Structures are given as structure tokens and as C-alpha cells.
């Protein structure tokens, strides 16, 4: 099972398996009744992306992009950890959940980041256990090192700003 939305910048997802598994899922999963096939333009976009990644377009562009996003992702993950965030996920992954834990922190953290032009996705209950709220950071190949440094500064300031708000609330 995988996502096409995050992996290829398209839409939808997929399940790959044996003929028996797919047949079983088609007949037993209620969500299948409401699903639609991927559109031809989205399918072509994915095929074109895979060809670039594999170098079948005759260039090294795909390999260069993968190396660049891997380098940026590892840099960003390392810097987040230095700031003090617990970062989930795997090294090399451009999708980085950072733990906020308290679901009440999420709106403030998200708002503080957004005010400074950095968008983060927050994830809370019921998608996560109640006290395992997190923000998800997604690094893209088009991000420059300057973009990442700016985002790290914003995230750090937002975390600090959030802590000040919490301190004010507890002293009242």
C-alpha cells in the first residue's frame, strides 16, 4: 500500500498484491464501492515521474533530485533534533513528524508558524492517540538551504512563542 499524493505529487494511492489479495479486497472492503480509478492525466504524471527517477528520460535529473532531497531532509531532521524536537520517521525521508504531544499546543504552534509564512500540517486524535499529537513537516526538492534555515528559525521561534503563551496561561 502506498500513497501517490506524497510520493509523486499526484493524487490517490494504491495497493499492490497477489491476484487473490486484490480480489479479496474488492469483494470485502466497503470503501472500494466509493473509490474511483485514477484519472489518465494523474496516471501519466506518475509514469513520467518514475521515468525521470529511473533516468529513462535520458538525463541524471532524477538521481540529482533524489540526492538533493535526501541531503536536505537529513539536514533538516538533524537541525530539528538540535532544537530539541523529537522527530519520528526514517532518515532520508522528506516527511518528518515532530512530536507536540499535547493536542492543545497544535493550533498555537500551527498559527505561529503560519503567521511567519511556514505551513505545517498538524495531526491529532483520532488520527493519533490522544496524547501523541504531532506536526508533519514535508521537505520538497525545490526547497533551498536558505528556505530550510528560515523554516527552522520559524519553527524554533514558534515553539518558543508557544511556551511563553503556555507560561502566561499557567500564571493567571
From TrEMBL:
Name the UniProt record assigns to this protein: serine C-palmitoyltransferase
Membrane topology type: Single-pass membrane protein
Pfam families hit by this protein: Aminotran_1_2
Cofactor(s) listed: pyridoxal 5'-phosphate
Pathway assignment: Sphingolipid metabolism; Lipid metabolism; sphingolipid metabolism
Keywords: Lipid metabolism, Pyridoxal phosphate, Sphingolipid metabolism, Transferase
Domain Aminotransferase class I/classII large: residue ranges: 1-155
Family indicated by similarity: Belongs to the class-II pyridoxal-phosphate-dependent aminotransferase family.
EC number(s) on file: 2.3.1.50
CC per GO annotation: endoplasmic reticulum membrane; serine palmitoyltransferase complex
GO biological process: ceramide biosynthetic process; sphingosine biosynthetic process
Amino acid at each position: 500500500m502506498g500513497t501517490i499524493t506524497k510520493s509523486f505529487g499526484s493524487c490517490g494511492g494504491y495497493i499492490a498484491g497477489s491476484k487473490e489479495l486484490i480480489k479479496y479486497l474488492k469483494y470485502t472492503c466497503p470503501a472500494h464501492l466509493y473509490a474511483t480509478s485514477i484519472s489518465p492525466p494523474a496516471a501519466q504524471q506518475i509514469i513520467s515521474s518514475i521515468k525521470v527517477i529511473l533516468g529513462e528520460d535520458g538525463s541524471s535529473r532524477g538521481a540529482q533530485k533524489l540526492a538533493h532531497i535526501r541531503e536536505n531532509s537529513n539536514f533538516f531532521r538533524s537541525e530539528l533534533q538540535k532544537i530539541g524536537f523529537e522527530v519520528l520517521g526514517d532518515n532520508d525521508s522528506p516527511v518528518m513528524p515532530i512530536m507536540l504531544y499535547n493536542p492543545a499546543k497544535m493550533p498555537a504552534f500551527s498559527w505561529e508558524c503560519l503567521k511567519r509564512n511556514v505551513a505545517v500540517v498538524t495531526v491529532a486524535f483520532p488520527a493519533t492517540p490522544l496524547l501523541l499529537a504531532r506536526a508533519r513537516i514535508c521537505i520538497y526538492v525545490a526547497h533551498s538551504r536558505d528556505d530550510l534555515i528560515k523554516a527552522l528559525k520559524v519553527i524554533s521561534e514558534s515553539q518558543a512563542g508557544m511556551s511563553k503563551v503556555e507560561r502566561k496561561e499557567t500564571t493567571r
